[in-house]
Design goal:
- The two termini are 60 Å apart.
- The N terminus is likely disordered.
- Helix 7 packs across helix 10 and helix 9 packs antiparallel against helix 10.
- The chain is α+β, with helices and mostly antiparallel strands.
- The longest helix has 46 residues.
Length: 476
Amino acid sequence: MNRRDISDDDTGPIRRVTDTPSDRSPGTSRSPRRTPPPEGARRPRPPAQRPRSAEPGKRRAAEPKPEPKPEPKPAGHGHGHSHGHGPAAPASRRVRQLLMWLLIPLAVATVAGMILLYPWGKDPAKSVFPQGTPVSATVTATITGPCLAEGQVQVGEPPPDAKPCLTSEVTMTDGPGAGKPLKLTLPIEPSTPRFAAGDKVVLSYNGGDVANPASFQIVDFQRGTPLLLLAGLFALAVIVLGRWQGLAALIALGLSFLVLALFVLPSILAGESPLLVAIAGAGAIMFVALYLTHGLSARTSVAVLGTLVSLILIGVLSAIFSAAASLTGLDDSTSQLIGSLGHGIDARGLLLAGVVIGALGVLDDVTVTQTSAVWELRRANPSLGWRELYGAGLRIGRDHVGSAVNTLVMAYAGAALPVLLYTSLSGVGLGSILGAEDIAQEIVRTLAGSVGIVAAVPVTTVLAALIASREPQESL
């Protein structure tokens, strides 16, 4: 009589409530079910009505529950009004209006900054030292021997410490002496390029007599063809994988180069503040590249805001610690630039401008990735709130930030590799090497940029979570 036909562990309390008879005495809840009642008591309790007569107080509260469940189904044909489909759209409109109010002034400030900082009406800056006109040529033959001027003859044995020279016979392929041969002599030094017959080279023509070899000097190799082939291979790979979005990314990349070449470089050479020019140029590149590549949407706007906040942080940290470390920015390349300009330039501002522009590309990658991750999480599970979206997106960001910081560090280390090698030859301690001007600049660039990248993850993720959680499902 006490045998259980259904396990309580399998059915739970719902099954026990359903099978409990209408007897209100808890001690006799099972015995009346097992002992058949008199025939007269069976009629008011047919088998179909037995579950409904058990615990009427609880059953009445449970009876309305099945009734509302079918009701949301017809209404849920449009993704469920019970999830706030109706009020979500106005919230999304408010969010987009907020993004517009935040981003439109920034875009206007960027355009205004570019207009004010551009050197309108000024002649392009030129070097005070004559650079010569580039002329293309082809090396036809090379001879290694003593360093002799044209017409000189070596008499006797050369001195033991005399350095040999490389005499190259070249034929100009363009310029004022196209088709004419020349013999040019270069001293063989460890830093001298090794030219051989068949090499395509670039000559520097100083404007003198075309027939005089002293009017020309070999300066470099021609690299146009391999660079164009590599650029074509890169463009093909991007278009094959990214298709139309890849094509848009290539167009955005071209426009970014135009901003650098037509605005950033001329404005800095004209004497404008390098940091202000870099901020305006980075803002223009950010707006053009992100919106052209990823479209005009709330998702892209969040990435733009995250990038902007991180760039401000990087600029502030770079300014503070470059001043605290007494960095002047006067490395070899900057000193050469100042000598060529013939006037002073804000060397520290040039250092900060390089930090801002150098970190922009990595920041775009981090912010776009974090925003896309949060949007895809919301699309996969529309019931997630902003806290859940933020937590999941931050876990993705932790994996991403490690590789992004390593990318930035390795990029700066690779660019500064000759400086690192040269400094390590000094034989001084590690502290002195790290404190040297050239190395300290790279350290400030790397660490300030890395802090900005780390900060971009939570900042962009929380913005994306707050906005994506209020987006209507069809807008995701």
